[in-house]
Queue: 3 jobs
Job 1
Amino acid sequence: MDRIIGIIGARKKPTYNAAILRSVQQCVKAKCQIITGGAVGTDEKVLEYCINARWSIYTTVYIPSSIDDAPTARILNLLISHGGNVYTITDHSSKYASIFMRNTRIAEEAAVIIAFPSVNNSNGTWHTCRVAERLGKTIICYSPGKKPVRTLGSGIWHPLKNKWWLGFWKLEYISVMEGGV
């Protein structure tokens, strides 16, 4: 079990729970480890689905504060009680530095990032995607309907055609040579 998938997303209460569940199910089916950030919203749903799938022992969470200070403390403690791992990453200079360190750690460890950004914001989600992009990682983004997702700069988003991945887009990297420069 060496493939690690980062599943991240907006703190806003997700309206796309079925898509989050499908992504967790596909990771479990492929016997992949799952990492996430432990925030409310998408990350919290990922944890709930991992616990329900009895996948806790293959689930790792990085949080930018202590568990006691985390808004998701209840589900984090439940994950731990089922064998999951929760690690605190803190930078005492600021809360935001800790969040960026957590996002970077997820991007560095994951072979693939599956992102669930909100339409309006999701700065942390996009930060993790930009770090993963710089590292050349596979990035898959959920964007229901025909709305284009935010551009990252080094590739083009292509919709995934598989029935499990409807509404998901994959970043296809373009080399400078391919771009005709």
Note: The chain has a mean pLDDT of 89.
Job 2
Amino acid sequence: MIIMTQGSHQRAPKKSSKKIASESDLKGLLHRCKDNIDKCLSVLPEGTLKDEAENLLADTEDVLDSEYRRVTIIVEEVLGKAVDIAIPEWHASELILLPLHKIPKEFQSLLVKGAKLYVHINIEAKNASELLFRDFEVDA
């Protein structure tokens, strides 16, 4: 793949099979990707595509800077391919419809009304569509 930049051609770096060791490594990688995207955006003409790309980039920056916190999720109802959950530490009165594919398979059999799981979420999310879930746990 060739990346076009202001008047020059560059080969895209080869894909690495090296695994990312930590969250800080991942954030570093994403920041380097963001820098390349910034360069590409700088040569795009003004208009809708550029505006949409800049908005997406801003959203990505928000995710990179998010604080994740371990919270309790409580299953309120199991609905086929999703569950209604409550996250008291986030928005106590709001139920969130969480698709099953976002929950690791080894935890799906534990999903019954009243079950409590622990997960890390981006606690600063303003609404349910911005929530990111990772590192599911149960009490041993």
Note: Residues 23-43 form the longest helix (21 residues).
Job 3
Amino acid sequence: MTIHKMDDNELDAALRAADPVARAEVDDLGAAALFGRLRDSEGRLDRAPFARRGPRRRLAVTGIVGAVALGVAIPAAASVLFGAQTGEYPPLVNDDGTLPTETDDTERIDLAADDFVEYTATIYPFWIGLPAGIDSDSVRIAAATEMSQEARSTVSPSGATGGVSQVTGLVSGFEYDARCLWIDYYLTATTEGEQSRQAHAADVIRGSLAWPATVASDGGNSVEHLSAIADAAEAGDTDVVRREFDQNCRVSLEEFGR
């Protein structure tokens, strides 16, 4: 038998083809991030501080304490598959005993990396259903491209460019985008007098309060705020719902051809 010794490029290609991430053991949030796409047939750290544009309240990568960790277990040999993965994780407790100000202990991701947009396909919550005619991957690419562009244009006081965010924060942002599309769907249905569509959208908005990353990154009464939006949608208070859309949503049905 002839044993072929693979060089680094061949090894990398083999790891990608084998897709070891798909065999990782994950909890509910990790499963939603990593396996969702498979289940949905339709559907370095001298960086500038970074928070995605809108909704700012949900997407800050610091200042949220005590959230639930992703708990993703990935084989060590395949733990870093993309340049966007820094391989760095914040501690659950700092050396001085204080709690860190990051979301949880999930990996820090380099938003300015060349393959950041590609990387997001491994964490995007494809399991979330979107309004008919909206392609999840198009939403992912648009959002990730915007984050990458903003990160590259952000300059820190030291002159460095770029930005990092944790996995949970990124997934939470993607969930917010999905919620915003349903909010837009609700408003459109209301304008068109389509009560059944309006009611369906209100149901989805209510259910979105339990989406894994939304719960995991809850801080500053964010879920309480979203609950008020769901209440307004169910009560037909379009002014409150529209205010949420105008102030905190960066995606719309029109952007994706609806």
Note: The longest strand covers residues 108-110.
